[in-house]
Design a protein that fits this description.
This protein is mainly alpha-helical and 262 residues long. The protein contains 9 helices and 4 strands, in the order βαααββαααααβα. Strands 1-4 form a two-stranded antiparallel ribbon. Strands 2-3 form a two-stranded antiparallel ribbon. Helix 1 runs antiparallel to helix 4 and helix 1 runs parallel beside helix 9. The chain starts with a strand and ends with a helix.
Length: 262
């Protein structure tokens, strides 16, 4: 958390861990490069690497369910759209009136699902691993306005926060006698009972947090100091520069190929 007044002693910098800006740059660049490349082997490799890192870091039980919640409906919609109604499809596997399952459509949908999985897993791995206070402090130390830094950090970590809040609500309701069976109607009823307090608590939390941040002068202009220092190094700064340049090169190459019909 930052403070407007100067001359206060900051907490010691923590060594031996990545600066949150390095993690953010790596996640964003991975998503950009993977999307620009449009190569299913690269997408598969990135997705596998993200799963491996989440397992090694003890975040798999958080990252994988969240990724499944995002990817399953999107993947099914891609299979429905491109698998049945792919205009460039020539190898028809099955047909029902205007709907045709084609090999080309399934291949296109599969590649897009892999690409989406790689991007989602990379961003979720960062979201579930980053320290929000460290990220806000790192952004503020580089001149980013406090309000924007907090909004960016909150957006990146919104899904983990919602998942944690939903888990606490479910545990509280189960302790009061809520029983969820495997039947679909039971699960839908439990979802309704959990969704209402989840939304209301998030709205209340947003108002409380906004008032607290305003009272602490988050939107004030002028020089700011921080009680929290985040370790950084010349090696990490150089690595961030290289990664950003690589992402820009991949995007430019993709745009050039699209412009030339490649």
């Amino acid at each position: 958390m930052t403070a407007s007044s100067a001359g206060r002693t900051a907490t010691p910098a923590r060594r031996g861990r990545l600066n949150p800006l390095t993690s953010l740059t790596a996640a964003a660049a991975t998503a950009a490069i993977t999307t620009a490349a449009g190569s299913w082997p690269l997408s598969l490799a990135v997705a596998a690497a993200c799963v491996g890192l989440s397992v090694a870091g003890g975040r798999a039980r958080l990252v994988l369910p969240a990724a499944a919640a995002v990817l399953v409906p999107l993947g099914l919609s891609l299979l429905w759209l491109h698998g049945l109604f792919f205009p460039e499809g020539r190898t028809v596997l099955a047909a029902w009136g205007p709907a045709r399952i084609t090999a080309e459509g399934l291949d296109f949908a599969g590649q897009r699902i892999l690409l989406l999985a790689a991007v989602v897993l990379a961003l979720l791995l960062f979201s579930f691993s980053v320290s929000v206070p460290d990220l806000v402090a790192a952004l503020s130390a580089r001149g980013v306005q406090g309000r924007f830094a907090f909004v960016l950090a909150s957006t990146l970590t919104l899904l983990p926060a919602i998942a944690a809040r939903a888990r606490r609500i479910r545990q509280a309701q189960e302790s009061r006698g809520l029983v969820v069976s495997r039947r679909l109607m039971s699960r839908l009823g439990a979802f309704r009972l959990q969704a209402v307090p989840l939304v209301l608590s998030l709205i209340e939390d947003a108002g409380t947090r906004a008032a607290a941040l305003e009272a602490r002068g988050l939107s004030n202009t002028g020089p700011r100091t921080s009680y929290r220092e985040v370790a950084d190094s010349s090696l990490q700064r150089a690595a961030r520069t290289v990664v950003v340049l690589a992402a820009l090169a991949a995007v430019v190459r993709r745009v050039f190929q699209a412009g030339t019909g490649g």
